[in-house]
Structures are given as C-alpha cells and as structure tokens.
Amino acid sequence: MSNFRPKYVTFDCHGTLINFKMADAAKDLFAHLMTDLQMAEFIKHFQAYRLDEVLQDWKPYAEVVHNALERTCKRNNVAFRPEQAEDIYNRVPTWGPHSDVPEGLAKLAKHIPLVILTNSMVAQIPANVAKLGAPFHAVLTAEEAGAYKPHLKAFEYMLDTLGCGPDDITHVSSSFRHDLMSAYDIGIKSKVWVNRGHEPANPFYEYTEIPDITRLPGVFGL
Predict the structure, then answer these.
(1) What per-residue confidence (pLDDT) applies to 2?
(2) How many whole angstroms separate alpha carbon 175 and alpha carbon 207?
(3) Is the torsion defined by CA of 60, 61, 62, 66 positive or negative?
(4) Are 61 and 124 in contact (CB under 8 A)?
(5) 118-140: per-residue pLDDT in tens?
(6) Contact 122/144 with Cβ under 8 angstroms?
(7) pLDDT at 4
(8) Is 193 exposed, middle or buried (0-12, 13-18, 19+ CB in 10 A)?
(9) What are phi and psi of 132, to 5 degrees?
(10) How does DSSP assign 172-186, residue by residue?
C-alpha cells in the first residue's frame, strides 16, 4: 500500500482517534451497584445496544445513548434514570485523543488531506476535533448524512461530498462492525485497521493493520 497515495485519508473518530470512554462513564454511574463481573457484562451489553440503535433510522445521538442505556439497564435489572444517559452524552465532547494520535496525524496532514466521518452530531464533534492536533479538510457527521455508520448511506454521503470514488481514498478505523465491513462493501480497497483491541482481526476485509496512528504515515511511505 505504500505506493498508493490517496486523494484523502478518511477516519472514524470516536474509538479510533478519540479515546471513547463509554465504558468508564458506565462504570462511574453503575459500578457501585454490581460486581466486577456484572459490570463487565453491563459494558458489553451497552456497546451492543449502541450498535443496534445506530442500525435503525437516524435519530439524534442523545437518543442513541438514552435508548441503549435504558435497554442495558433493563437487561441487567438495574434502575434507569434519563439523567444518567444525559450525563454520558454530555461527557463525549470532553474526551480527547489516544496519546499516539496527534503526532501521526500532524505528520500525515502535511502530505494528504484528512477527513473525518463520524457517528456524531454537528454541535458536539468540533470539541473533539480541536483536541486532535492536526488540520482536517472536512469533518462529516451522521447528522448531515442522515445515517449512522455502518449504513452505506453514510459512506455514500462522504464520497459524494468529497467528489471522489471509493478507489480514491484510504479509510482508517479501529472497528470492523462500524466501518471496515461497510468500507469493503462499498468498494474502498485501501483500508487501515488500527488494532486498539476493540475487535478481533478479520483478514477477509483486506486491510493493513497498524497498532496506532504513529504508524499510519509509514503506510504511505512517509
């Protein structure tokens, strides 16, 4: 892949670039109510329900968090209060990048325009992007696309907005289920998986694996 120079390098944001502390937020609110093993199950369910919520028709991300947390509490026989979901949602813009991100992005941005495609809201994402330490050509949200990833509609919106085709970009993510499977399906051949331990490897989806963003410039021979 080092011989390929894309028109844009496109990124998932939360989880890949931003340290997405949903598990920590859930622990803060619920760990005192259960054992460590029960908390681990709660976190797993919360993640699963967030994915299930974004697979439905678009709705504001506050509703995604609310519904996912309410369903998680019901499954785990824990009382749910709406203000708990609001608390978690309001934490999202305060979260910053993984420690490896600013250096790698800043180096890459000198050579290739960077783009974010995020399952976020227009009003929330600027606070996260400002912490990344690099300029972005475009920051595109699910709100603008009218669909969350992994819907192909979100990727179609990105390609249409950039005025390019799937062969023109490299898409970077730490998630197969939210990004790389859909990127494969829509025909993006150049893909990079940042192995942050969220999901197991799946070579079927034809990607380059890196451990962190400091290694990303090297993918393009930089």
Answers:
(1) 56
(2) 12
(3) positive
(4) yes
(5) 999 999 999 999 999 999 999 99
(6) yes
(7) 87
(8) buried
(9) -85, -20
(10) EES-IIIIIHHHHHT
Among 112, 85, 115, which Cα is nearest to 13's? 115
178-216 confidence digits (pLDDT tens):
999 999 999 999 999 999 998 999 999 999 999 999 999
Count, residues in the chain: 222
Tell me how far apart the alpha carbons of residues 6 and 115 are, in angstroms, rounded to a whole number: 12
Q: How many CA atoms lie within 13 A of 164 on its CB side?
A: 15
Tokens 């990105």: give the residue: 158
Residue with tokens 């609310």, as numbered in its chain: 66
Edge to edge, the sheet with strand 8-11 lists 138-141, 114-118, 8-11, 169-173, 190-194, 208-210
Residue 142 predicted with pLDDT over 80:
yes
The stretch 4-11 carries a mean pLDDT of 96
Q: Where are the alpha helices (DSSP H) in the chain?
A: 22-30, 36-54, 61-75, 82-91, 101-109, 125-129, 142-145, 152-162, 181-185, 216-219
Q: If you search the block for the tokens 């305060």, which residue do you land on?
A: 94
CB-based burial label for 42 (10 Å; 0-12, 13-18, 19+): buried
- How high is the pLDDT of residue 141? 98
Report pLDDT for 3.
73
